[in-house]
Design goal:
With 397 residues, the protein is mostly helical. The protein has 16 helices and five strands. It has two domains: 113 residues, no CATH class; 203 residues, Intergrase catalytic core (hpI Integrase, Chain A), CATH 1.10.443.10. The strands form two sheets. A three-stranded antiparallel sheet has the order 1-2-3, with no helix packed on it. Helix 8 packs across helix 10 and helix 8 packs across helix 13. InterPro entries: DNA_brk_join_enz (IPR011010), Integrase-like_cat_sf (IPR013762), MAVS (IPR052787), ZMYM2-like_C (IPR021893).
């Protein structure tokens, strides 16, 4: 039997090639591949894709744990908790320490954490264990070494609910049409200035494309918004802007997600309406500096024909976080944040009878549970349901 030999790739020129041809080949190969990466870049790549919010959550959980451990060590020096426990190979020891943490963890004001926050804390600590390449998972139901931790979590969770802690949940407030009207009346929505125009574009992009509150808006690029057709002189109800998602919380594009499609949704023109997103974008985008990549650029204080409307400087993420607050508070409304745009869009569609499949496509949700957390049925639906209980001959419309 013939000996198997590895395939050999001959990437050189034939021997009869001229020196000029060989040099051309070498030059092409130099352009083909980048410079060898440094060890720091390799290390960063091997850490995988971790959303910024997840990183922040992990840091918060770790800091909370270490603050607790240091305070406990002062009070119980004979039972010292080693701060290197996240590299500890002893699963039983880890389980015992986490049981103590679960029972003793408190907010800065001394109040107990609600179940959902306690779960977030433990999840963050678990990510730290994974990062340090321990051979166990604290949530592994088949690992008997963590039975005590699971039982402790059940006991604490049940007691918290019994005491009414974490029973009620906070949802993003939903803007009513009347609230929206008021913002227009007070001038916080409109086209009266470059800042107001930008806020208005932000508001309706958030509504029509159902974007997440801060990061997706901050990262939004001009190339993600495509006008169909591109001719700005054409404007009727068939004109639309198409938003194409690049990356999001629900779609970070892992290697195994090759078949997952990006969210692609459209916002159609509403001729005759001052709130038409197509009309607003037609007005706003041409004012951006030529060749700019991002949608939200710093507005000039004054605008004239011989000066730029928006500078080549992005609006900071902390400023963007305040956009909806500025819009609503300027109209005398309180309690609204950027996140309310997403909740408002989904609630309006839900209450108007739009199928959940369509709502999920617009929002980018991959599960109905996640979608339904945003849907807030209006009071009339609950009233109708209550009337049917009393009189089952009635129909639910």
């Amino acid at each position: 039997m013939a000996e198997k030999r590895p395939l050999e790739v001959d990437d050189t020129c034939p021997s009869d090639c001229s020196e000029e041809a060989r040099e051309s080949k070498r030059a092409k190969n130099e352009k083909r591949f980048p410079s060898p990466i440094k060890s720091e870049a390799l290390q960063k790549a091997t850490e995988g894709v971790v959303p910024n919010n997840t990183k922040q959550s992990t840091r918060w959980a770790l800091n909370t744990f270490l603050t607790w451990a240091r305070e406990r060590n002062k009070r119980c020096p004979d039972e010292e908790i080693d701060e290197t426990i996240f590299c500890c190979p002893d699963a039983e020891r880890v389980s015992h320490v986490l049981c103590l943490f679960t029972l003793e963890a408190r907010k800065v004001d001394g109040e107990r954490y609600p179940p959902s926050i306690l779960r977030n804390l433990l999840s963050g600590l678990n990510r730290e264990f994974v990062k340090n390449k321990v051979t166990f998972g604290i949530f592994d139901k088949n690992d008997h070494r963590f039975t005590e931790l699971r039982n402790t979590l059940d006991s604490v969770n049940s007691q918290l609910h019994r005491d009414g802690i974490g029973v009620s949940t906070n949802h993003a407030e939903v803007l009513t049409v009347q609230d929206e009207d008021l913002c227009w009346e007070k001038g916080t929505l409109g086209v009266s200035s470059l800042t107001v125009l930008q806020h208005t574009v932000f508001f309706y992009i958030g509504l029509h494309f159902v974007l997440r509150s801060v990061q997706e808006q901050y990262d939004l690029m001009v190339s993600q918004l495509k006008r169909v057709p591109e001719d700005l002189t054409v404007y009727d109800r068939n004109i639309y802007y198409q938003y194409s998602e690049y990356i999001s919380k629900n779609n970070v594009h892992f290697f195994t997600d090759a078949k997952m499609k990006n969210k692609v949704v459209a916002a159609y023109a509403q001729p005759g309406s001052s709130r038409c997103l197509v009309s607003l974008l037609d007005r706003y985008l041409p004012l951006l500096p030529s060749g700019t990549e991002h949608v939200y650029m710093r507005p000039a204080k004054e605008f004239s024909a011989d000066s730029p409307a928006y500078y080549r400087q992005r609006v900071g993420i902390n400023t963007i976080k305040k956009f909806v607050h500025l819009i609503t508070s300027g109209a005398g409304l309180v309690g609204y944040t950027n996140h309310c745009l997403r909740a408002t869009a989904m609630t309006r569609m839900f209450n108007s009878g739009v199928p959940e499949k369509v709502i999920a496509d617009k929002s980018g949700h991959r599960s109905l549970d996640g979608l339904r957390a945003y849907e807030h049925p209006n009071e009339e639906l609950y009233r109708a349901a209550e009337e049917i209980i009393s009189d089952p001959t009635k129909k639910f419309d």
